Amino acid sequence: MENRQKAEAFASLGLNDVLLELLAKQGYKQPTPIQSKLIPILQKGESVTASAQTGSGKTLAYLLPALMQINPDASEIAHHYPRLFILSPTKELAQQIYEVSKPFAEVLGLRTVLLQGGGKRSDETRRLERGVDLVIATPQRALEHIEARHIDIRSIKHFVVDEADMMFDMGFVSYIEKILARMTGRAQKIIVSATITPRVVKLAKAYIKPIRQVELDPPGKIADTITQRLYPVLRSRKDALLSWLISANNYGRVLVFVRKKELADGVAESLREWGYKVGILHGERMHQERKKSLHAFRAGEIQILVATDIAARGLDIPELDVVINYDIPHVKHDFIHRVGRTGRAGREGVAITLVSPDEIEQLNDLHKLLGNRIEEVILPDFAPKEIKARGRLLPGNHIAPRRPKSKRGANKAGELRGKKRKTTKRDAWKRIDETKATSGSKKSSKRKSRK
């Protein structure tokens, strides 16, 4: 009864006593804003697209109402077959969703299975044949089992696409479309993401009718519990500054983000030379290696985890006090996801960004996204000379884009900008097209003048 009273705030959302008891035991006292808004809508069986800032509790927001509809009275289940299907872009996020969902499914007598590349497909098949109620899967492995008829997609009552914008970035949308095309119109479809992009909206409109959109925060919103700081530094001094910040502030658990997997290996090796216990997480490492590094980091066996943006989405790492951006990500929205690994569920966190002079253009784009400037901290031992003299990285309230002096320089800058933007996935295609259009018009005008 005491536990039931502690989770009384969840009772108004229509959850049964069994789930309320479990929520209280696991320390959930108050529903987050996205949970308060989304759970009642999903309880009615409506299909939605939903977005809220990272760390806002979206997983439970779509999980609890689906489980309630499958077994509202927590009665004994006679027949187990897939009724809730959750797709996740990465193995790490799929594993986390599995761990979050398992106790809630078990208390309702429901069986859960995790399907992902790297695991034995034969073992997964046997579990599916024995009967499961909840399937959590990565897109390619999910489609493999569906095409092999190990899963009857027509039985699915609730279908969730988690981190939908990341599905596009990683090239998984074709798998999702094939799965959606096989589903019946009766299934409740839920598309969830930290940012709802035009491509996500297009996907939703194609397969969800009628559709309802729930959006709590603007795209550039970062939790108020996170304190941000920016440190100007020479690129050649980034490793030394990184080590100094960790040591000087006595940070116990640090997640360091870098753009490229090769850089992750180099930064990790540098930190090890300074005497730190370091793990690595990026796409080129074997799944078991990634799983081992993440487990050791969560357990406190290693102090620092160096990761690419594969770790920026959805991962919940308890007691993570600080995130350090070794560089600014190619896709500016990934900065929000990186920073969102700390300051979760109302806890306070710190986000530090190291910026070298060659990243000023990306920093300007980032400030436009966030709508404000990040506090700058000038350290004389690490900052470039011109920045020490000026007293800040960016002069004035903003900095204008660099403009080359000659036409030849303009073409060069355009070419370089195009090369960089090809790697930026989601938010760069418009700029590439504009660069090509400008270049094409210049060539056309030159041909006309010669004539």
How does this structure look, described?
By secondary structure, this protein is an alpha/beta fold. 45% of the residues lie in helices and 13% in strands. The protein has 19 helices and 13 strands. The strands form 2 sheets. The protein has a 7-stranded parallel β-sheet with strand order 3-4-2-5-6-1-7, with helices on both faces. A 6-stranded parallel β-sheet has the order 8-13-12-9-11-10, sandwiched between helices. Helix 5 (58-70) crosses helix 6, helix 8 packs parallel to helix 10 (173-182) and helix 18 packs antiparallel against helix 19. It has 2 domains: 31-215, Rossmann fold (3-Layer(aba) Sandwich), CATH 3.40.50.300; 226-390, Rossmann fold (3-Layer(aba) Sandwich). The termini are far apart. It has helices spanning 2-6, 8-11, 17-25, 33-43, 58-70, 91-107, 121-130, 139-147, 164-169, 173-182, 198-207, 238-248, 261-273, 287-299, 333-339, 360-370, 385-390, 407-421, 429-450; strands spanning 48-51, 84-87, 112-115, 134-137, 158-161, 188-193, 212-215, 226-232, 254-257, 278-281, 304-307, 322-325, 349-355.
